């Protein structure tokens, strides 16, 4: 019989109080210090449930700033085994004049404490599986306070290199703290996803113009692409001396035949573009693509799973491919557009722990593609030889900028234009 799932959500709620930043803690019914949280009701989202539970348990109205993380553990009910899934969100109180009025039938007390005191109380009386949460909340709060999502992550691709470098010098220590905090989180909640040691390569790096052509994976993944389009792609790759072509599984055999003896490798995609494929189907796709002549595989992680902090499912999918193709370089496509900065970091660490050789920003099918900020974070995690930038790379200056910040490969359908430019 399938294990029954129970879902709960809550908040790590902050406010700016008389003693600086203050944290909302509850005394729960079991004698522990914790955070307000409770069951996800039918029809609710995780976010809806978190906001409602904070309000019902403590009387505090708060807004969500970012997903903070997730724990899972087994519990025993009278009716059998249950898998408990609990998500926590970083939240900010909306009315800083309010004081908690706790729900006596659910909890024994609620109050805001200065950060240091709250952390001390939680360390002494909290639950061990949340022992990582203060470090990660601290990083994400600083990210929010300094508006780094807008100032850094959403930076236009055409921004001057000097401005990018200036911002990078300022934000890099915070991102390194994020990498450390997420690593500690994974070690606590999903040890199997915590096997990768971050590289922290220095950035930006010097990139020669001559490095551009070999880095390009000349890409054709449009749904209407024809066999003649694929043959033209291969011809362009030979003419412009690109390192690789990237085509859909249907076209791997044709591309491999056309490029035989040229030294240009064929890359194909798995679970493309949404990552909804089952692990067994991913393994079968991998085997078929390799048999048809693919030299490398780009797999899409289950994006929806990562959007709800489900690193266990991400790890399962990546391992299905790397186990089916143990001698083949595998790139994990993270689709950064849909992920918070913390989720992107966790996805990269999990994919690399699962055996992926590279991490890749995008499929090219999301509303946004490669961003310098995402490439830089992935390079700090994976190393500058293990990052593929893809999606919206149409200018030579942008391509070189992405390479300066750690991209080793460039997935683009505009390779010819980049070279002619």
Mean pLDDT: 96
Order of helices and strands: EEEEHEEEHHHHHEHEHEHEHHEHEHEHEH
Shape descriptor: globular
Strand order of the largest sheet: 8-9-10-11-12-13-14-15
Rg, Cα atoms, Å? 23 Å
Structure in words:
The structure is a single chain. The mean pLDDT is about 95. The strands form 2 sheets. The protein has an 8-stranded parallel beta barrel with strand order 8-9-10-11-12-13-14-15, surrounded by 7 helices. Strands 1, 2, 3, 4, 5, 6 and 7 form a 7-stranded mixed β-sheet that branches. It has helices at about 45-60, 115-125, 135-145, 150-155, 160-190, 210-215, 225-240, 250-260, 280-290, 305, 310-325, 340-355, 370-380, 395-405, 415-420; strands at about 5-15, 20-30, 35, 35-40, 60-75, 80-95, 105-115, 215-220, 245, 265-270, 295-300, 330-335, 360, 385-390, 410. It has about 425 residues and is of the alpha/beta class. The chain contains 15 helices and 15 strands. The protein folds into 2 domains: about 5-125, Alpha-Beta Complex (Nucleoside Triphosphate Pyrophosphohydrolase); about 210-420, TIM Barrel (Alpha-Beta Barrel), CATH 3.20.20.70.
Brief write-up:
This protein is α/β, with parallel strands linked by helices and 421 residues long.
Core attributes:
421 residues; alpha/beta; Nucleoside Triphosphate Pyrophosphohydrolase; TIM Barrel; 2 domains; 15 helices; 15 strands; 24% strand; globular
Layout of helices and strands:
Blueprint: E1 4-17, E2 20-28, E3 33-34, E4 37-39, H1 46-58, E5 62-77, E6 80-93, E7 107-114, H2 115-125, H3 133-145, H4 148-153, H5 161-189, H6 212-215, E8 216-220, H7 227-240, E9 244-247, H8 252-258, E10 265-270, H9 279-292, E11 296-300, H10 303-307, H11 311-324, E12 330-333, H12 341-353, E13 358-360, H13 372-382, E14 387-390, H14 396-404, E15 409-412, H15 415-420
Parallel strand pairs: 1-6, 8-9, 8-15, 9-10, 10-11, 11-12, 12-13, 13-14, 14-15
Antiparallel strand pairs: 1-2, 1-4, 2-3, 2-7, 5-6
Helix pairs in contact: 3-5, 5-12, 5-13, 9-11, 11-12, 12-13
């Amino acid at each position: 019989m399938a294990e029954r799932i129970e879902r709960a959500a809550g908040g790590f709620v902050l406010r700016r109080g008389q003693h600086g930043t203050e944290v909302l803690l509850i005394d729960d019914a079991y004698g522990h210090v914790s955070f307000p949280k409770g069951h996800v009701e039918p029809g609710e989202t995780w976010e809806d449930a978190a906001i409602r539970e904070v309000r019902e348990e403590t009387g505090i109205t708060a807004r969500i700033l970012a997903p903070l993380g997730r724990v899972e553990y087994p519990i025993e009910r009278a009716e059998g085994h249950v898998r408990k899934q609990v998500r926590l969100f970083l939240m900010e109180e909306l009315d800083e004049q309010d004081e908690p009025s706790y729900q006596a039938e659910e909890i024994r007390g609620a109050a805001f404490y200065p950060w240091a005191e709250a952390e001390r109380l939680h360390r002494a009386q909290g639950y061990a599986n949340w022992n990582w949460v203060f470090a990660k909340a601290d990083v994400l709060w600083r990210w929010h306070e300094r508006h780094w999502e807008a100032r850094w992550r959403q930076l236009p691709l055409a921004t001057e290199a000097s401005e990018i470098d200036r911002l990078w010098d300022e934000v890099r220590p915070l991102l390194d703290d994020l990498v450390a905090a997420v690593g500690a989180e994974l070690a606590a909640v999903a040890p199997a996803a915590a096997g990768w040691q971050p590289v922290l390569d220095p950035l930006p790096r010097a990139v020669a113009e001559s490095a551009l052509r070999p880095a390009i994976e000349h890409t054709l993944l449009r749904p209407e692409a024809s066999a003649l389009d694929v043959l033209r792609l291969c011809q362009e790759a030979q003419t412009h001396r690109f390192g690789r072509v990237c085509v859909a599984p249907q076209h791997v055999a044709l591309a491999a035949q056309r490029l035989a003896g040229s030294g240009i490798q064929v890359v194909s995609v798995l679970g493309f573009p949404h990552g909804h494929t089952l692990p067994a189907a991913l393994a079968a796709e991998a085997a078929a693509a390799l048999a048809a002549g693919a030299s490398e595989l780009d797999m899409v992680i289950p994006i929806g799973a990562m959007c709800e902090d489900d690193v266990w499912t991400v790890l399962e999918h990546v391992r299905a491919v790397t186990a089916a193709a143990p001698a083949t370089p595998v790139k994990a496509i993270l689709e950064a557009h849909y992920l918070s900065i913390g989720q992107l970091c966790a996805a990269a660490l999990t994919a690399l722990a699962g055996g992926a050789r590279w991490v890749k920003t995008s499929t090219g099918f999301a509303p946004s593609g490669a961003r310098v900020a995402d490439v830089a974070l992935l390079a700090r995690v994976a190393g500058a030889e293990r990052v593929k930038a893809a999606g919206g790379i149409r200018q030579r200056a942008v391509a070189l900028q992405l390479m300066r910040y750690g991209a080793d490969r460039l997935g683009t359908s505009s390779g010819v234009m980049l070279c002619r430019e």
